[in-house]
């Protein structure tokens, strides 16, 4: 028995297969450049050779069909029959206030996810597409939705309410939601294990630093604040997203440059961040390289990027009333020693001291002060698989209970 995990983005499909009993990953892959002339499949079965294959132009239907073809392939597949899949877990970016935990996807849930498209128009439609294709290909297999926003759903009102007319919250649903929830949950849980403390007794700051980036303040297992807000645009400086700024400057720039809302949205989401400051790239590897070379614009971009993270760490330490651990994860968080070094420079006042040798090696534990500092690779797919398994078992138990009652009545 296997669980398939799917993460459908606008131009990619990320997938992973887990053994149902052991929860071990037995294959992982990614299809990129969906919608372009040549899509690319990258696939790695456990214990086998990595595969890279260029294909024809794909839409999401064809891409997901290719996922199944790859997993069933006689030479490198990990499935003999697609009916080995007993459940499919889907990453869904936005669950609004309706979804505070993972759920079995029935027609009512599908409708509610569609309602959340207004909050995440760039993400939820593609998540839905993956669900619809899987329901068609495997109509009798349960599909499970795991929401990016769910982990942050217990934030207190003082964290999620914006200082706008209150009716915008009650009528329009305008509030802070937060994202990357499965990642923040996974690495904070791992940090508690490394600390040797119960999860519900820890104060942890998590830094998910990739092209998209966010942070969370986690108190006793609950996210009490997070940097992303109503959309993933708020908070940290990111690859192409601006993060926090004065709302009035948006109106000013629109008026001065005669920009439409759509044009301004494109600038804020796709042309800002380190790409906007550097003028060349949103690739943090290039930004770092030029930083060390002393390029003024890239140096500025990198310093602004690190400054914002440092500021949030200070703010979250205050909210938590102290910190047990700071966690770095995702592409930049896991693989950039200089980012972690600059972010935590002069943090001795709060009990943070970096072990330079361990930091340079991207070691698991890089702190040697009172506050632990960890570099923990995130595993959002495992969280999705585990949540899916729990719901599948509930469904099976319910079916067994119903069948038991039917047998009893027949007798």
Tell me what you see in this structure.
With 411 residues, the protein is of the alpha/beta class. The protein folds into two domains: 2-147, Nucleotidyltransferase, domain 5, CATH 3.30.420; 196-378, Nucleotidyltransferase, domain 5 (2-Layer Sandwich), CATH 3.30.420.40. Helix content is 42%, strand content 19%. It is built from 15 helices and 13 strands. The strands form two sheets. It has an eight-stranded mixed beta sheet with strand order 5-4-3-2-1-6-8-7, sandwiched between helices. Strands 11-10-9-12-13 form a five-stranded mixed beta sheet, sandwiched between helices. The longest helix is centred in the C-terminal third of the chain and has 31 residues, at 380-410. The protein is globular, with a radius of gyration of 22 Å. The two termini are 32 Å apart.
List keywords for this structure.
411 residues; alpha/beta; Nucleotidyltransferase, domain 5; 2 domains; 5-stranded mixed β-sheet; 15 helices; 19% strand; globular
Q: How many whole angstroms does the radius of gyration measure?
A: 22 Å
Q: How far apart lie the N and C ends?
A: 32 Å
Strand order of the largest sheet: 5-4-3-2-1-6-8-7
Report the CATH topology name of the largest domain.
Nucleotidyltransferase, domain 5
